Amino acid sequence: MSDNCFHCGQPAEKERISFDSRIFCCNGCKSVYEILNLNNLGTFYELNQNSGVRPDENSLEYGYLDTPEIFDNVTDFSEGETTLVSFKIPVIHCSSCIWLLESLHTLKPEIRYSQVNFTRKTVQISFNHHQLKLSELATFLTNLGYKPVINLETADRKEDHWDKSLLVKLAIAGFAFGNGMFFSYPEYAGEILGSSDFWFDKYKHLFRFILFLLSTPVVFYSASDYFKSAVFGLRNKVINIDVPIVLGILVLYGRSIYEVLTDYGPGYFDTLCGLLFFMLLGKFFQKRTYSALSYDRDYKSFYPIAVTRVDFNGKQENILLSELKIGDRIMVRNQEIIPVDSILISGSGNIDNSFITGESATVTKHPGDKIFAGGKQIGSVLEVEAIKNVDQSYLTQLWNKEAFKKHETGLDTLTNTISKYFTIIILGITLLAGIYWIRIDEEKMWQVVSAILIVACPCALALSAPFTFGHIMRILGRNKFYVKDTLTIEKLAKVGTLVFDKTGTITQSKKSSVSYTGQEIPEADLLNLKSLLKNSNHPLSKSLYQYLDVEDSYFETEGFQDIPSKGYSATVRGQQYKIGSASFNGQQSQDLETAVYISKNDEYLGRFIFKNEYRANLQGLFGKLTNYNIHVLSGDNSSEEAHLRTIIPTAQEMSFNQDPESKLNFIRELQDKGQKVAMLGDGLNDAGALKQSNVGIAVADDTHSFTPSSDVIMNGEKVAELDKYLLLTKDAVTIVKFTFAISLTYNVVGLTIAVMGYMSPLVAAILMPISSISVVAFTSATTWIRSMKYFGRPI
């Protein structure tokens, strides 16, 4: 029998629940299975095996959503008995998810309908708010495993990242191309058949004028981005690839106007519109490739939309975060982010600052201690007093620092480097050919010059990099390495230095290995300890509870005492136990060690030592990265440096106790030495370093969860395969160079014929798209072959 959960497919390691002849990994998955079967929705599992999502064990309370002001801010529409709300649900991943979320009305009659937008990972739900509260709806979705994301970012109601102007330009080019071919057909037919139609001869000037009208907005509006890019490059003293493209566009357009005005021919208006349509189409698909992923988020993506304010009489009130002021007291519950710099008033704080500092261990806070925004409370409810506004807190200032912003021009790409020489050579050839032919035949000179500039239009050259890198982006994406844009692939190929953050990058973010040192503990005592551990919310207690491999039975505890920053004690079945720090158990703590000490009836038994659990196959990975300079940064202490040296013997430098600015400065110092740096990190503390590096790679075990600004989002389980991704990017650049060679060969042959005066502008206009097709075919074939080498399956 499989040890994987029937609902979510995850291994049933810590908990194994048998129900209805099936195995489940937790009560949450079992409950969802029961709900679906009771409502005859068992088809969910038939659509996609193991397609379910495990319900979040740390579900937050959603009561604040029922506050009128917050309700109005979150919902799309509410009138009478009907309310419409759109929730962002990142875990939507397959057809079964869509089917289930669109079948919610069969689970709850208060829901009228629900509709999923798979691309945006959202579901819009219509429901009766008199019968079903908004908070109850959010809780219901969470219990099904589809926890909605509700924060400041989603409340801003930003539109999806559609480039509407590009869409309009594409539509105009498509309209002009289609209609241009229609109006050009009689002329083409006449040339092919050797005779023309009487009515066409009579109205051909009208048709040509219509073609001119259709192509003009395409040239000056649809192609405006190419003009802007060319001007931008020239202003920066760089001849980028758009300079010769613009030159080719103007020559085609100008030559067409000349032919029409002189009645020399029909011009090339339809060819020009078609060329620009396909170039814009490629750009559109490139921009839409990974719109569902966010590579550049700010603090709003994980700040709550509302907080619970408490007055001095203990009265609680839910307010929007934007209304929070200095001096206000708020409640912070288990697993909630602290949204503002504050002072702890009451409660026992166990603050996880990993987003800010990278330190994996929690920090204990006492009443009167300062807590920075961005920390996450793990444990009991806290009451804190705001000492700064949201926009003045440390976390917000960290994001807004200019040093943490990346500014790039994109002018130093391989394509632009080659195009600089390409353009100069083409212009030189054109000038020399013009001087030669004007002395022989002035009319022939214009034909030769036009043919040269048309046949040499670097469309194939311009398409080679986007098509190659576009294919590589799709290959990488299907292997959980999501690249922001094609420029990033080229930058990755140039990288010679890799900087790894330790916590959450080369270590498992949610796992730690536990070892025991001390007396052998009888099973009866282990059962008692497990019952005692169940009373604590401290993360180390939870980890230890999962580690103890004894039956999950609960015995009543007596005299439970929790001493902040020390530990806790209680009596279980007549035996008194102490669990906590070394001093709490009368022992001397070991330096640079995270451990939980255990005593029974004031007799010391031993300690459980917690160490980060490193990702699998790291030694094999670093053994393959011998051509790179390796550095390791960490916000943790240096307790595991010796172990890290065995995993990464080639590391040039390991730096510990690094804060965000230290990491950023470390990257900057490497760049000042002329090194091209890729940084791999996972937390907010890495945001500045990721932006400063040439390529920032955000490692996330859930690629839809919060990630700092980055160029790449990489699934954590794929870290050990980093070498394959880097090699594929280098192959991509090699493929681009080959396509450049094909394009240049075509240009050399075409230019030779054109310079000799044997090629008409019409033939040049026909040959131009043929070269582009050959480039597309070559890149498609070669990228497919290279992907098979690394990932062993077709793209």
Automatic annotation (TrEMBL):
Cellular component GO terms held in the UniProt record: plasma membrane
GO molecular function: ATP binding; ATP hydrolysis activity; copper ion binding; P-type divalent copper transporter activity
Ranges for domain P-type ATPase A: 307-399
Signal peptide as annotated in the record: none
GO biological process annotation, one example: copper ion homeostasis
Residue ranges constituting the Putative metal-binding domain according to the UniProt record: 4-73
Bilayer disposition of the protein: Multi-pass membrane protein
Top-rank taxon, per record: Bacteria
Keywords assigned by UniProt, alphabetized: Cell membrane, Ion transport, Magnesium, Membrane, Metal-binding, Phosphoprotein, Translocase, Transmembrane, Transmembrane helix, Transport
NCBIfam families, per the entry: ATPase_P-type
Family: Belongs to the cation transport ATPase (P-type) (TC 3.A.3) family. Type IB subfamily.
Protein name as it appears in the record: Heavy metal translocating P-type ATPase metal-binding domain-containing protein
Organism from which the protein derives: Marnyiella aurantia
